[in-house]
Write a structure and sequence with these properties.
mainly alpha
Length: 401
């Protein structure tokens, strides 16, 4: 179940970097400025990443997880197959927004895999899906290079077919655990529980804002920055591949360490503190990579690649973050809580690339990276505060087993 979810996320995130790599050829084809298309295409996708969590925070998919995945995949694949047929800038921008809605699968898979794995194993299971964000970005870079000799429209069709195959495999093999089946029956009796009155929804949402801001800004603009400082398109593609692969490895490293620490915990509070320690290390690696990118990235391409690889270890964060809903929310609120904290944290997806594109135009790249570093400091401080706080958590029965 973890493997098929990870495969689906990998094929889905091909769309993140394939657009950036093909944007120049798309722009020439439809007769618009490349920078305008890149900025609007990335920003609309990022706003979709934020809007996606509105779809589930009201409990719509609490008991219909695979229905939610089907809707998310439709938002992703249908536009991928339509964009090559369109020569209008604004229609492409709208379709990119719909593609961003697929990020709702993060919350859906967090809930779905929770039913199959105990708390001390949940991050490992989620590493397949969350590491796939970076792995899919890497594959997008590879495909963008491999398919560079054919028209961009055909490249889009090929990536669309790859996404469709990933979805078919998922729906053939995916199963809800007995946990979800019981929850579905109980949910019809107890009804949806709002998570907005629970302070953990807001706190956990805020904790992931620095990661979300950096992850999707770097994923969307790293190749642009590489071109800006003088590296070739092929080098920029290789850079994205290296960053993506390091993130995939980092997701498993973070998951293994987080699960190991959680396995020693005896209650929900100790599990939370264990995972916060790994999330803090991920924030530190994220900041270090950004500092090296801006400070010495111009020295040589391999220095820039090394800095990007270090930054890729920010992916130690998500498996531990998305493993926590079952430990920090009451049983009847897990689904709503996961979508709620995703909605708050992914507000950075909508704002980050918009701010990044504006800063690139007016203040240059230094301002872009300084904001990322400042946000990382905020994340580390909030992690430290939560680890020491006495905020109320659910009783351990039913949540740690």
């Amino acid at each position: 179940m973890a493997a098929v979810a990870g495969l689906l996320m990998t094929t889905s995130f091909i769309s993140l970097t394939s657009f950036g790599i093909l944007a120049n050829r798309i722009a020439v084809s439809i007769g618009v400025n490349t920078h305008l298309l890149t900025v609007l295409g990335i920003d609309s996708f990022s706003i979709g990443l934020f809007a996606a969590f509105f779809l589930g925070q009201g409990g719509l998919f609490d008991n219909r997880l695979k229905t939610g995945v089907l809707i998310a995949q439709s938002f992703l694949i249908v536009p991928q197959l339509l964009i090559p047929l369109i020569d209008n800038l604004w229609l492409i921008v709208i379709l990119r927004f719909f593609q961003g809605l697929m990020i709702m699968m993060l919350a859906l898979f967090s809930i779905q895999l929770e039913g199959w794995f105990a708390p001390k194993e949940r991050a490992k299971s989620l590493a397949f899906t969350l590491g796939a964000i970076s792995l899919g970005s890497a594959f997008g870079g590879i495909l963008g290079t491999v398919l560079g000799s054919i028209p961009w429209q055909e490249s889009y069709y090929v990536t669309g077919i790859v996404m469709l195959l990933g979805a078919i495999i998922y729906f053939i093999f995916a199963r809800d655990a007995p946990f979800q089946k019981r929850k579905s029956l109980e949910g019809k009796v107890t009804g949806h529980k709002s998570a907005w009155k629970n302070p953990m929804t807001w706190i956990m949402g805020a904790i992931q804002i620095p990661l979300a801001w950096t992850l999707f800004s770097i994923g969307g603009y790293l190749s642009t920055y590489s071109n800006f400082i003088g590296y070739s398109i092929s080098q920029s593609s290789s850079l994205i591949v290296a960053w993506g692969l390091s993130g995939f490895v980092a997701a498993f490293v973070g998951a293994l360490v987080g699960d190991r620490l959680s396995g020693r915990a005896s209650n929900n509070r100790d599990i939370l503190r264990a995972r916060l320690r790994v999330m803090t290390v991920a924030d530190i690696m994220m900041a270090l990579g950004i500092i090296l990118i801006i400070a010495i990235g111009r020295t040589s391409f391999y220095v820039l690649m090394g800095a990007a690889i270090i930054n890729g270890f920010l992916m130690m964060f998500p498996p531990n973050y998305w493993a926590l809903p079952g430990n920090i929310f009451p049983y009847a609120m897990v689904g709503a809580g996961a979508f709620g904290m995703g909605l708050i944290s992914n507000s950075a997806d909508a704002i980050g690339p918009l701010v990044t594109s504006s800063l690139i135009s007016h203040l240059g790249w230094s301002g872009v990276f300084i904001i990322m570093i400042a946000l990382t400091g905020f994340g580390i401080a909030l992690n430290t505060w939560l680890a020491k706080s006495k905020i109320k958590l659910p009783e351990d029965s039913g949540n740690t087993g």
